[in-house]
TrEMBL record:
Keywords: Membrane, Transmembrane, Transmembrane helix. It comes from Shewanella colwelliana (Alteromonas colwelliana). PANTHER family: INNER MEMBRANE PROTEIN, INNER MEMBRANE PROTEIN-RELATED. The chain crosses the membrane at residues 6-25, 32-55, 67-83. This is DUF1145 domain-containing protein. It holds the Pfam family DUF1145. It comes from the Bacteria. InterPro entries: DUF1145.
Amino acid sequence: MMKFIILAGKAVTLFAWGVMLYNLVAPVEGNIGLLLTILLAITVVMHSLQVLIFHTLFKSLLPLSKAAYLQVLLFGVFSLLDYRQQVLASEK
C-alpha cells in the first residue's frame, strides 16, 4: 500500500513540475500564471531543503548517487519516504 502511495505521489509531483515549467515557456495570463511562477520558486526552495535533509539523514545509511539526489530534488518527500522504506527494509 505504501509503495502505491509513493508512486502516486511521484506521478502527481511530476505532473505539477510539468505544469509549472510549461508556464515558464508559455505563460498563462493573469493571476494563475503568476501563482504558478511563485509556486515553482517555492517548490525549488522546498525540494532543495529536502535534498539537504536527505544528505544529512541518509549519507551514513545508504550509498548515495547523483541520481538519488536528483530524484529527491524532483519528487521531494515521496523520494524521502521511498529511501526511508529502503533503510527500514535493510535493517530487518
